[in-house]
Specification:
The protein has helices at residues 19-40, 45-84. It is an all-alpha fold.
Length: 85
Amino acid sequence: MKRLRWEAPDRDRPLPKHPYRDTAVVYGVLAILLVIVAVATGSGLARALITAVAVFVAATLWSWRLWRNRLRERARIEGATDERD
């Protein structure tokens, strides 16, 4: 039986300069696209806006939480290596 092996995310990748802002911008653009597609397909504007705002807030908060944890972990690791030197 062949098993798929997923590699762990590369923790050595450089972090973006503004991870929180970049995340909000990306999800903001996706929320706008959601409203455009919903209205273009005949859904109501109010319903599309409410859904887009809810999805934007949930996705942004989740991503910010992940960024915060990643930044804390990186700081902890860098702090541990500094103490050994």
